[in-house]
Batch of 3 targets.
Target 1
Amino acid sequence: MADHPERHVLRGRDMRDLVLGMSDGLTVPFALAAGISGAMASSRIIVTAGAAEIIAGAISMGVGGYLAARTEAEHYQAEERRELRETHEVPHREVAEVKEVFAGFGFPEKLINEATEVIVSDRKRWVEFMMRLELNLEKPHEGAAPRSALCVGSGYALGGIIPLFPYVILSSVQSGLLLSAIVTCIALAVLGGWKARVFRTRVLSGALGSAVTGALAAGAAYGLTHVFLSRM
C-alpha cells in the first residue's frame, strides 16, 4: 500500500508527457505535409519529408522532456537544501512557518503546538513537511527524466504517423491532403478531450480547441506556401 501514491504520480506524469508529445506530433507534421501539398509535391516527397521531421521532432521533444524533468529535480534539490539549512540556521522562523501552515487548515492553537512539536522532532520529516505543504513541491522520482524523454518522444512519433499515413495509401496529393485533414482533426479532437480529462478541464472545449489549432496551423502552412510560390 505504501507504494500506491508513487505509482499513481508516475502514471499521471507519464500520461501527461505522452499526451503533450502526441499533441505536437499531430500538429507539426500535419502542418508540414499541408504546406508541402501546397507546392503540389508528390506523395512520396511529402512522406519522406514528414518522416524526417518526425524523427527530428521526436528526438528534440524527447531531449526537451528530459531537460525539463532534470530541471524540476534540480530545483527540488536546491529548495530542499535551502530548507535543511534554514532549520539549522533559523529554526525559530521555520517553526513559526510550520505553525502558519497548520493555522491555515484551521487547527486550534493547542493542536497546532502539539502537531508542530511532532513535526520538528524529526529534521527529515520537518524538511519534507516544508517542501510539500509550504512550497507545494512534490519530490520527483529518480527515473523521471528518462521516462519523460521516452514518453514525450514516443508520443510525438506516434502522433506524427497519423497525418502522414493518408499520403502513404493514396497517390493523389489532394486526396491525401483531404483525408489527412479529416483523420488529423478527429485525432486532435480525441486527444484534446483526453488531455482535458487528464488536466481536469472541460472535455468539449479541449477537444474543439485542439482540432481548431491543428486546422489553423495546416491552413496557415498551406496558404503561405501558395503565396510564396505565386511570387516566385
Target 2
Amino acid sequence: MPEPHRTRISADVDFEKDGMQHDFLRLFHSTHASAYGFIPIPIVVVKNGAGPTALFLSGNHGDEYEGQVALCNLVKWLAPQKIKGRVIILPAANFPAALAGRRVSPIDDANLNRSFPGSPDGTVTQQIAFYIENELIPRADLVCDLHSGGSSLMYLPSALIKRSADPARMAKLMAALEAFGAPRAYIAEGTQGQGGDVTATGGAERKGVPMVGTELGGSGTVTPAALAIAERGVRNLLVHTGILPASERIAPPEPTRLLEVGGADYFTYASESGVFEPLAVLGETVAAGQPAARIHFPETPWAPPAELRFQRAGLVLCQRIPGRTARGDCLFHLATDARRP
C-alpha cells in the first residue's frame, strides 16, 4: 500500500506545547527571485493544559479585513493563563492574497475558499487548503472562518452556518451560531454556484468538526461596528467551547435574528455590462417583482437602461459595491426569516 500523501508545509510551532507561540508555517516555493525560499504564513498557538481546541481563520480571502483585524487584536489579548485548552489562530490564511489585498492569490490566481480539499503536491493555494483541512481542522473542536464581502460586496454584518442533514451536527452548529451573538445569523443551503465541498466549510464537514462563518461587512474596509461584532463573537465562541470562563462572555446588545439564504431566486445578477444603479439599500425589506437595479450604458447614453427586479421577497443582506459591473456579477442577495431547527 502506498503511504498517504502528507503536507509539504512545515510548522515552526509545537501544537502540543503549553504557552504562547507565534511563528510561521513554511510553504517552500521556488521563484526566480528566491530559489530556495518559503512563503511564511503567520500562525499563533496559545495553550494551557488539557481542554478543547478552537481554530480561528481569517484572510481566507485577502481583501476581507475585518476578521484579520479582529484576530490580530485577539492575539494581543489572549494569554495562556486566561484559557483552558488551546487556541490556534491563522490570521492570513491565504498569505499571498492577504499581502496583496486581493480575493485570490497573485501567485496562482486561485481562490482559497474554492480550493478545498486541496492537494499536498498542488499549487500554492491548493497546498494551503490541504494543510488547513488535514493538519489544522482535525485538531479543533470548533472552527470559525471570518469572512466579509471583500472589495466587491457589502453585507449586513452576519454570522452563518451551512445546513446539515445530520440532526446532531445541526444542533452543534446552531448552538455555536447563537453563542457568536451576531445581530443577524443565517443558515446557508450551500455555496452559491460552487458547492460546499470546495470551501473551508466543506473541509470541516469532512472532518466532522462544527464551523461557524461570518460575513462581517466588506467594501474593502473595516468599520468599528463590524469589528465589534467580530471581536464579541470570537470571545463568545471561546466561552462556548469552555476555553474561556463564562465571566468573559460579552452579552450582545440585541437578540440574533435568524435568517436563511436559499436557492437561485435569492440572488440578483447583472443581465448586461454597464454602470449599476441600485434601487434598494442594505437592510431594506423588498417584495417579489420590486425594482432592484438599473444598468446604464454611458458609452451609448441614449440607450434605455436594463431594468432588473427581485425574484422574491426578502431582506437585502448583501449588495455589490463597484458601480461598473459585468453581465453575471451578483448585485444583491436576499435572506428570509427562518424557523429554528
Target 3
Amino acid sequence: MIISKITTTSVTIPYSAPVGPYVGRGGGSGTLGASGLITKIETKNGLVGWGEGTGTFESDPNVLLKGHHAADVESAITIMDKNGIARGPMSGLEMALWDLIGKQAGLPLCRLWGGIVRTHVDFTACMGLKAPSESADTARAYIDRWGFKSIKTKAGNDPEVDLAIADAIQREIGSEAALRPDANGGYPAENTVEIMQKMSDLGVRFFEDPCATSNVDTLTHVREATGIHILVNGGVGLPESVRPFLERNAADSLMPDTPASGALLRVRKIADTAAPWNVPCLMHCAHDLGLKTASITHLAASTPNFSGPNDTCYHGLVDDILVSPLEFENGQLEILTGPGLGVEVDESKIEKYRL
C-alpha cells in the first residue's frame, strides 16, 4: 500500500434554504454553501483513498509522501508537521490514509478503531443568525423535516438580540429539542455570567464558547453559577491543548475538529484525554461535505467518549460529491459498515463543483 499519487481538488456545493445563507458572528452576506479540499490518494496496489480537508496545500504533498506506506499514519503526520503543512489540508490527507487502510483490511473505520459501541450517531442542526421569528421557523423546519433533537444557533454580536432569538426558539420548540447557542467567544468575560443567567432563565441548558476560551476561570464560574452545560470549541486543537479546561472544570463537553487538529487520530486522542474527567466530545462543524460527515459517524460509532450530538449543516446541501448522499432520520445517521469510510465518491461531481 505504497502511495503513488496524491491529487487535491477544491470544491463548493450550495446550501438551500433554510440553512443558507448561513450568517455567522460578525454578519455579512453569510456562507452560501459547504467547501472542502478533496484529497485522492492512489497506491501502487490499485487502491484509492478519499479524504476531506480545508484550505490548500502550499507545497506539493507528493514530494513529501510519494513512496510512503499508507498505513504509517503517525509518521505521515510528523512529516507534514515538520514541513509546515497546515492542519486544514493535512486533515484531508490523513483521512484518505485511513480510508485506504480500511479498504485494504476490508473493514469500516469504526471496526478498525476498536469496534462499534453505537449504531446511530446524533447530530445538532446548525443555523446562522436570523431574526427571532425566522429563527423559530427554521428550528421548526429542522425538527419536522429532519427530526433533529438538538439545534445550534450563532450568537455573540449583541446579547439582547441573542436573548430574543433564544426566547423565540424556546417558545416554538419547547422540550422537543435542545437549543445550543454559540457566541464564538463574543461576550466580554465580565458580563458572561449575567448573560448566561438570562439564557438559563429562558430555559437554555447548553451554550458553546460564550466568552473567549482563554478566560478559563470565567467558564468555570459560568458552569458553577448557572448550571448551563458549557461546550468548548475555541482552543481545542492538539490533545495537549485541552488539559486546562479539564483540570479547572471549565467544560462539560469538548468540541474538536479535524481542520483544527489536523487529523482524525488527534481527535480520537482528545476524546481519550478527556475520558478520565468524564467530559465527552462531539465534532465541531466546518461546513462539511459527505466525506467529513462520514468520518464523524465512524468516530462516534467507535469511541465511547464521543457521545454528544455532533454539529452539521449537511442537511442543507443541494447535492454532494458522494454517489449516495447521506440521509438523516430522527436527527441521526446510521453508521456506515462498508470498507474504509464506507462511501463512494462520484468523481464527475468533483468536476462539477470544483472551484
